[in-house]
Design goal:
CATH class of the largest domain: Mainly Alpha
Radius of gyration: 35 Å
InterPro entries: AAA+_ATPase, ABC1_TM_dom, ABC1_TM_sf, ABC_transporter-like_ATP-bd, ABC_transporter-like_CS, P-loop_NTPase, Type_1_exporter
GO molecular function: ABC-type oligopeptide transporter activity; ATP binding; ATP hydrolysis activity
Number of helices: 22
CATH architecture of the largest domain: Up-down Bundle
Pfam families: ABC_membrane, ABC_tran
Shape: elongated
CATH topology of the largest domain: ABC transporter transmembrane region fold
Bound molecules: adenosine-5'-triphosphate
Helix content: 55-70%
Membrane topology: Multi-pass membrane protein
Strand order of the largest sheet: 6-7-8-3-9-10
Number of strands: 10
Family: Belongs to the ABC transporter superfamily. Siderophore-Fe(3+) uptake transporter (SIUT) (TC 3.A.1.21) family.
Length: 651
Amino acid sequence: MIPGGRDAAVRVFGRRGRRPPQTVPDSGLTGPVDIPEPKQPDEPKDLRSRFARMRTSVAGTVRGLPKVAKLTWQASPVLTILIALVTVVSGLLPTVTAYIAKILLDSVVAAIQHRGTTGDIVWITLFQFGALAATAISSAITTIAQSLLQERMTLTIRNEVMAHASKLHLAYFEGSTSYDMLRQAAQEAPSRPLSMMTSALGLIRTTITFASMIALLVSISPLLALVSLLAPIPAFVSQSRYGSRAFWLTFLMSPIKRRMDYLSSLVTTDQYAKETKLFGLGPYFVERFRKLGQVSYERQRKLTVHRNVAATSWGLLSTLAGSAIALYIALEAVGGRLTLGDLALYTAAATSVQTSVSGLFTAFSGMYENNLYLDTLYRFLGTEPEIVAPARPRPLPTTVEGHIRFETVSFSYPGTAEPALHGVSFEIRPGETVAVVGRNGAGKSTLFKLLCRLYDPTAGRILLDGVDLREFDPEALRTQISAMFQDYVTYQGTAAENIGLGDLDRLTDRPHIEESARRAGADERIAALPEGYDSPLGRWFDQGVSLSGGEWQKIALARAFQRETPILILDEPTSALDAQAEHDLFSRLRTLSSGRTTLYISHRFSTVRQAERILLLDHGKVAEYGTHEELMAAEGGYAELFTLQARAYLG
Ligand SMILES: Nc1ncnc2c1ncn2[C@@H]1O[C@H](COP(=O)(O)OP(=O)(O)OP(=O)(O)O)[C@@H](O)[C@H]1O
């Protein structure tokens, strides 16, 4: 679902539109390509609210500055000081240059009229050279400092984004709005603080130029100063308006861009290539991508054209004012009220004030636009992880026994009405092995996720050795659990790394890794690889070995066995294993799980019956719980499913 999908659909088709909202597909795979955007905050229409909004955005932008300055300082104090010094100097240079030009012209006139010497002219030219050289050097320093800062700041921010993302709760990654925010923070935001800083420094530099120039202008003609001041305002207004629209479009485009990225990955990633080819989906996906791209381009085109046409039209007003000023000065010179040097100075000053004012506005609207992106970054960085340690976490017992108790646990995934678990109560004694069974969607994996505290129950509680899981530090709790999930990860690394990552403390402990591989039944295959445990797995490597599905599953199992914990959780551990490998694993599991509380999910009843107790879930509720014999004798749901499968085997 895109954020506000249903509302958005209503906006597109109307309340009693051509199609009922629920039939509007927003996956991007079929249906209209003009995927509606989430609602953009309304543009204020009347002057008063526009002014109020401007005040808010100025305040917001200014408030954003200290954070950015801090980031820049953190990235490099030396470069920050350097760039600040150069800014002040380069702010003054245009005024100095203009003043030197005036003196030079006046000296030339004086020399012509035999009131001065050529020596004066040489000196002034030397000064002029100095000022021009300083301008060139300061601009070079700015470029160098900026690109170095850019590198460092991008690294700092990407680090922060990664560090924060690694702390966030699982549900955050599963919501589409938060996913968009994460995408913005990871891709757009890293370059923004420096742009913001550059704009802010530009603002300071321009202010210095502006103040010194205006001082010159006011002393000669206040009217001239006023006209130069007012002319560029319209250009600013249009800039700030389109700046915010550009942000919204990039942000809002996320849903459409996300679908484009997905379509592109369907065609360009090895993972999907087989199916895409078999079903002949390639050209279809390419065509969908093209259509979505067209919509995205059209929206971007409209904005770019409007933004630039408006800016240029308003900018013409400023040009007109500039020409009027030039005429005024020229007439004054003809009238003999100004010297030739004054004429040069005023022309330079007036032009400079005008460019400064529009520069000020441009810098400010740049800051405003960057600030909107930064807001997203800060909002992301400000998102509190929902699964956190309590203020005073209870220390884990020195030996965790693995006594698990669910007390009327209910759970609904965020944004869903239907509970995935409903009033679930059961108990597992320390060291016991329990198989969890049930139809697809019954809530089995959810149960495991709650036990690992990837989510917290909506109601009820889960106890480990008599203590509510929420009283422990979740990270400490997870060190007590080894788990293999249904959708395990296949790391693009060596076989040893793939297993070693299961226990960071023993990442390079080769004998232990080999033992874990033996436990999972992966050792023979790894030994047969070209470089044994050091063989790279996966296609990212030139010499990477492609493993079969079952072989990968054994590696993932070995990773789970790498940790020696009191609780072992396996979500369909043998779904990809052959019959022999499955049999071997379950034979070993008896030894492997001795003294550990073990839970596994399986749809194969031959393995399920080997568990000490069996928990049957049905529509998120505990339907049956007991030994195989008890449940068979009860002739309930378990007995029915068991017989169904057994009969199929016996023909
Ligand atoms: N991340 C999620 N967000 C929202 N709903 C979810 C999420 N994961 C699972 N669900 C829903 O919760 C219910 C239980 O899912 P769960 O994965 O626990 O089922 P399961 O019993 O493990 O199924 P299977 O045997 O197919 O693996 C399902 O109806 C599913 O649609």
